[in-house]
Amino acid sequence: TININNVNFASYPNYQVWLAKRYPEQVSFMNNQKQQKPTLTGQRFKTRKRDEKERFDPTQFQESIVQGLNQTGSDLEAVAKFLDASGAKLDYRRYAETLFDILVAGGMLAPGGSISDDLTRTEFCLFTAQEDLETMQAYAQVFNKLIRRYKYLEKGFEEEIKKLLLFLKGFTESERNKLAMLTGILLANGNISAAVIGSLFNENVVKEGVSAAFAVKLFKSWIYERDINAVAVALRKVGMDNRLMELFPANKRSCEHFSKYFTDAGLKELSDFARNQEAIGSRKELQKELQEMMARGDNFKDIIAYVREEMKKTSISEQLMIGIVWSSVMSCVEWNKKEELVCEQSIKHLKQYSPLLKAFTSQGASEIILLVKIQEYCYDNIHFMKAFQKIVVLLYKADVLSEEAILKWYTEAHVAKGKSVFLEQMKKFVEWLKHAEEESESEEEEEN
Question: Which GO CC annotations does the UniProt entry carry (predicted)?
């Protein structure tokens, strides 16, 4: 007799079917007794305490900062030390905007630039400080030390300045002047990029003249700390060098208005910079149009007439124009990469365009500029190194270059790029020119 309650079916798989047939009632009863209890599907995870998100509440943070600033008062050295020490206890990363709002305006700023009256505020901030460059320099040092100590604040600080520039209409004139001087100093020190100036192009601050007036103070402090060349480099780096006209409403965006406004404000160097940028922009547009005319195959008569008209409009000298024409001529063709073929290709190409070059080399100075441009081009494009002498000879025969200009270039007017190589190439031709000149002079003496 088998007691099926003591049988391990897993150990005797061959008996399972037999037992089920022989003792169906007992096996059925046993299976019912061993049914598993129902369980809930899915898994339950316990959230770690460190992963729980803390609710964003800047009130306590603000109270701590305001209390510390009230204790340090107007002593900016003490303020810098307090901010340095507080970074270890307070969450600067989370409440960066609140921190900078308090340091600049004394409290948290609402949209538009106003301070909420129901929140804690301090009277020891940038906006309540004295309105002079020395004080603003001291405040700039406070921000500089804070950002150097806590590098992660760098991006947030730049965003804060952009926001403040959008809120300019909500500030008083004195507050705007202080912020402008501080911004200029921060730009000079490299604490922020010139990209922040983009906020000044917002229509709301442009239309009432707020942007232009702010820019005067900003650029004065920036240039005072550095110089116009450093300012120009910073503006070009972020593409702001060609956008300064946007400081004025659309109906006043002219170089004449810009120049007069900033010259009258004592910023002639900025006016000159803007004029130079406009001239560069005009030359780029002219070169682009010139290249398009060449690509279309327009006749030289029409091209020359167009260029001369543009020279009158933009006051471009022939010396500048020959450089533009040369660049356009050399960029309107795809050059062969092989040195032995590019020489022949360049001679054929320049022979075709020599009438165009001739039209803008009526002065000796223009010829010298063209020779220098050829020298620089052949040096910068290594496949043309051996073509220099052949190009010069071709243009001499086409009456584009005179022997006087070539001799002057050879003796004193050449530049350093490839000097030894090109002078050596030109040596025999220059000797021939000198000999021809001597023969011409002797013939004239004989006739006399």
Answer: cytoplasm; membrane
Task: Give the Cα-Cα-Cα angle 317, 322, 323 (nearest 5 degrees).
Answer: 105
With H, G, I as helix, E, B as strand and everything else as coil, classify residue 115: strand
18 contacts 9 by C-beta, under 8 angstroms: no
Q: How far apart are CA 176 and CA 172, in angstroms?
A: 6
pLDDT digits (tens, 9 = 90+) for 205-231: 998 899 999 999 999 999 999 999 999
How many CB atoms sit inside 10 A of residue 99's CB?
28
Q: What is the DSSP annotation of 105-135?
A: HSSPBPTTSPBPTTS---S-SGGGS-SSHHH
pLDDT digits (tens, 9 = 90+) for 271-324: 999 888 888 888 888 889 999 999 888 999 999 999 999 888 888 889 999 999
Separation in Å, CA 323 to CA 9, 46, 189, 295? 100, 74, 37, 19
The predicted model gives 22-37 an average pLDDT of: 55
User: Helix, strand or coil for residue 14?
Assistant: helix
CA 438 to chain centre: 56
Per the CB < 8 A criterion, the answer to whether 275 and 245 are in contact is: no
Distance CA 443, CA 189 (A): 69
Contact 248, 258 (CB under 8 A): yes
- Distance separating alpha carbons of residues 119 and 110, to the nearest angstrom: 11
Both tokens assigned to 71: 């204790």
CA distance 119 to 101: 13
Q: Please tell me the pTM assigned to this model.
A: 0.67
Cα–Cα distance measured from residue 401 to residue 173, given in angstroms and rounded to the nearest whole number:
61
Distance CA(90)–CA(182), nearest Å, equals 26
Amino acid (1-letter code) at residue 16: Q
**Local structure of residue 413 (DSSP, 8 states):** I
* Residue 165, pLDDT score: 96
Distance, in Å, from the CA atom of 342 to the CA atom of 387, rounded to the nearest integer, reads 8
